[in-house]
């Protein structure tokens, strides 16, 4: 404070000095639009002439979009089957008790366009913070250094009880979904396997950039001195025995699993119904699904389901968006009427 | 600051004896103006910064984030903003420090006891003898020893000390003056000085010099203070008495108190409230976590790593984790942004051309940059009169001499007098005739004016006289005497030369009984060339009248009549008297005077007694009347301010009649007022009764409960009275009214009146009145003044404004804002103040809204992620949200926004009222903000939630994953708050549009960059969101969701605002509607009438006070566009 005071005093001396020396107008501020706060500007006002028509327009537009969304969403066919098998009367009622292979049948109506095969989990907290951080991005990027010393984030799935590093480490990888499915179409009493396509079900960026295998050839060498995750039955380099390029960290199922869900109820893409054989979608008929039941969810009252669905321009079936647009649109129109009444009443009281 | 290890009672020092002086450990002359040096800067500055609560809080958060079990966010989310804030503040501190370092200018000084050596002035020590040359700054408090000028005089300018620009004289003691510039003698000088300890009184000094066994009295006349400049003096020598921080200048500087605005205080309360709310939210979530862990988490262990299987401990950790995540409710950037906004708005004041006064080349100056928004909330203005409402250019207008009044309207020819000042105009020829007729009273009258003053004369060329007067009154009187043939030509310490009707006379000056605020008079005792001893006295009429000889009673009556007449014209009056002295008595008196003058104890008291003794039985000569013209635009300004519901109290030292008259002429008191009460009681009871009577006549039912006031609640509410009233109270009564038992009575009565004038007020009373209003009224006060007597009031009020005018700079130096003319006050308040307040409130409302909305989304998400302190957004977004994505738009709004322009602000002063009532930002509006945020956050979480639930991309792939959801929510949030900003903003300049759109563009640019392949390959673990932007933002349903949330967030706001505007329009709404009408008329009217209307609107713009517009607006058919 002393200092600022002191400065000001100096300023004033110089000011008076100028006056004495007849240096006129040296202190006059600049005459610019900025310093004089006269910048040209647009000053919108919420007048009735803008607000009421605006509401009507927005309302109508929303109703239009809403109808389109609603109709589209309605046209999408979805078939869901819960196969947790902890309740009697549901499909796969005995699945949870018996091991390995189970199957159940269902009807599928004629679909339009390609059909996707999802598995769904409920009450499964992939968005739990410590679950989400329990991975090592550097390791998954294929940096060998992190194979032998995984990040602390992975604990307690960084090392096994023998202090051997786990690759891939962490909870997410460890808890990878490992039920497998086979789909059969029953044509004239005989079961005919529907070929499923597991290529390109993960994001392009995940497959090509975010996850990488080490360059070792064969891939197995990179995993020397490491162990597979505790819940896994096969090591990472043997996830897909039929396709050597679909192994390690770039295995499509692994990639899909690693993209953790935002909400505790989620579904993930399992396979596509092969478009080579069924270019127009899945024909109507009876199908049966054969499940290899490995994944235990009933312990935390989770649910498992399979979902068959086709998609539209707006993605999967979600009626909410269409309804929301319809509701908001109608509200806008309604409010514009209310506002008009209020405006009229308070502006022209004599004419009432 | 200086730390004194012992409290110094008396200072002792010996010239040229460093060892002796060093034993007292007096401060050296080095003033450590810079706080830091290169090495200490970082640690010291950081230490200081972390003493601020907000910074300390973020440091604490940072510590929490380092604990892995708690850390819910990466460290960089806190470090980046913290570093930014610290850097900005440190840069500011550093520049301040560098500026002050430049103060340590390299002055080289000649120190006598180190012969042939010059030293930097900072090495000077107490007891050194130093040489000063012409135009040099005095850099320590010195005792003057000798000078180059005759009679050991030096001339100094004290502008830096008290702002007065006239030259002043100092004179050395003859005994030291004999030392001359003889270095040998000076080096051998070994006088000892005993004087007062360091203090801050600039106008007083007491000390004794002991030299060669003799004692000599030292007073202010022999002292050069640090901050003076030597003028018209070739050289002088001085003995250093006080150095560095102990100089009077530096002792004076530390006094100013730190002022805070009411918004600041409100903000502090709100921050505490927010902390409480944060704790509440975290507790709720911690409890939630406990329940979840108990019911679900313990079952979920198969897939979830659990370090401790203890729900209570987990919920404890969760509490702290959520403290980290939800910390954005206490935004660190808030304080920095507030500072920036205030700084910007202060610059606008400095830059305003309409507050620049060309005649003195003075721009307005915001000397404090922290009080701007308070300018928009002023309820009481306390104004000085002289120099503030008036120009402080004094004109000798009328006089009464020996019962005859002079000063009717004629132009007088002064050609008989070659020494006349050509600018002087007087209108009564009779006076000139009287002078020419050698009327003895008239001659004595002007002789007195020529002799009794402290003016300095400069005669650069023969016949060209310049007077340097400390007060313009004195200058005016001496100039008057000069023109009437009694020309003051020069003075020495013991003589005054005047030219009386063309003949040179030299009067021996025997004593000056100087002026001060208590004495209110000054006298000189002179011996005329004929050897006659006389005392001449001039002063306030009441004071002089008490000291007159009985023989004057008749003359007194006539003169009083004249005085009242003068005061009625708003003139400042002084009474003049003289007396002849008896030689013997005087000799005895001057002896006692000398003794008193050298006394160390109670010197003032003894002198006052002596003065009192000799200034009695005076003979009245007459009185002078000086006109002080009103400044331009004062009545209009006062009218505008009172329309804005600002109450104006004038506090003046003038007579009651003068003050009243000025009150009428500047529109403060009006003829159409119902009544103007005059309180002039001379006892406590009288004053009480008068105040009560006044109140009863204003509001008959108010008097009964007059005594009642709850002691607990110390706030006096405004009482509404019908009609307009004025109150005039004089100094005596005010002293009673300010006593504790009566102050409430006074305040209640005064606050019911539209205008209050207090006359005959002392500087202290000015401050007391301000303090009284501050104490009992929940209102913001502003004091405006120009002189040293206003300093206390300026410092006491919430905001002090100084008029940078003629009466020195002291008021300006202690003020918060300064400008040259009173009329600029309306622009400062109605335009700058209003805008600053509006902008600050809009800023705060919006800032809290955007941060609460941002934070509450986390709260809702907690219920869906097992209360695990998982963030909704990407960590980078959390880091940059306040710093990059939303910082500039909100700053743009709070630097450029204006609801109506300055012309309209002047036209509708009522627009100022919401500020006084705290309408734009209060606890209530803060609460509304929080509710609004709550709604927005619900929309922002649940709409994306429902829209993404179980959905997939248009190619069947995953989109309901966490990263896509995060991106979707944060994009929705940014759109929602940006659109909300658009609705807050009422003035869209190119800059603000650029800021808003630029920030959105920046968001997408930064997001795409951070989520790009390149960034990921450089640092895989820092940028895990790779590809999310590309994969998500290419989906139509994502954009439909963003659009839906944005619309849903603002729809209720628009609806509410529109309905409120229709149902209960505020003054702002009405004005904007008028503006719109005018605009619509301008655009849509047929061509032939269009020109006319444009013309009308133009004329309206050029003349802000016109009221013709209202009529125009009423003629327009009300059918809207």
UniProtKB/TrEMBL annotation, chain A:
Pfam families given in the database record: CDC50
InterPro entries per UniProt: CDC50/LEM3_fam (IPR005045)
GO cellular component annotations of the record: endoplasmic reticulum; Golgi apparatus; plasma membrane
Localization (cell): Membrane
Signal sequence residues: none
Keyword list, A-Z: Membrane, Transmembrane, Transmembrane helix
GO biological process, one term: phospholipid translocation
Source organism superkingdom: Eukaryota
Chief place where the protein resides: membrane
Transmembrane stretches, start-end: 45-71, 323-344
Sequence similarity: Belongs to the CDC50/LEM3 family.
Protein name listed in UniProt: Cell cycle control protein
Organism: Amphilophus citrinellus (Midas cichlid)
Source lineage: Eukaryota, Metazoa, Chordata, Craniata, Vertebrata
UniProtKB/TrEMBL annotation, chain B:
Source organism superkingdom: Eukaryota
Main location (coarse class): membrane
Co-factor requirement: Mg(2+)
Domain P-type ATPase N-terminal stretches: 14-79
CDD domains for this protein: P-type_ATPase_APLT_Dnf-like
Transmembrane spans: 73-91, 269-292, 312-336, 847-870, 876-896, 926-945, 965-983, 990-1011, 1038-1060
Residues that hold ATP according to the record: 384-386, 474, 515, 538, 572, 652-654, 760, 766, 789-790
GO molecular function: ATP binding; ATP hydrolysis activity; flippase activity; magnesium ion binding; phospholipid transporter activity
Protein name (database record): Phospholipid-transporting ATPase
